Amino acid sequence: MMTEQEFDTLWQTAEAAPHAARLLEEYPDWRRSRRRALGTTASVVAVVAVVLPLLLHQPTEATNANYTAAFSNRPEVTDQYWVDLADALLTEA
Amino acid sequence: MNDPFDALLHRYRGLLFSLCQRYQRRSATLEDLLQEASVALWMNRERLLALSAGPRQAAFVWKIARNAIIDNLRRTPMSEALPEGYETEDEDRSKVYELRERIALLPEPDRTVVTMQLEGYSYEEIAESLKMTVKNVSVRLVRIKEKIRKEWT
After folding, report:
1. Which end of chain B has less neighbouring CB within 10 Å, N or C?
2. Nearest CB to B120: which of A7, A12, A19?
3. Low-confidence spans in chain B with pLDDT less than 50
4. pTM for the complete prediction?
């Protein structure tokens, strides 16, 4: 024969079973909503970390000087170069 | 039936699911661990429900559930050591099935009284549903439980 304590534990396990079953029914919905939340968080992080800095990037005097040095101050970039480039672009258009 | 214990489980479902997900194994599925945690919470329900919803209650839920899960993992053999297709015998669960079978064999209205009690209905709800007094429900339940316990071999 089972002791009173063993039986009490067994009875409580049986009492808890329907509650656990009801809780388990909520699991698929919870997992879906959690995945959605994680997806949203990942999107926000991507926007904040990558896209936003690019969009908000403002040229400064230093970066402007770099661009000028890189694109305009080369020996082959003459006034004729710009005229030819403009002609080529207009022809393509 | 608006059960306060169900409401408690619903409130902390995220915490419980995350905890069970973290500890689940081949030999201890999420379902097993959730069952184990639910039983432990059920056994402490009076103390838990006495606390108001908040950080203290959440911490208590977390502690009880985590301890229950770890106890379960200690009792369960490591799944990796088991051959493919081998299933561990969950003794507690098979006892619950046996209990349910014994309850199913009870005469009416005893079977309904016990079933309703196990489903979480209060004595008042059972009494109203079966046109009995609350005292009658209470006494009947004590007698049925004692009968099942004594007949258990």
Report:
1. C
2. A19
3. 79-89
4. 0.65
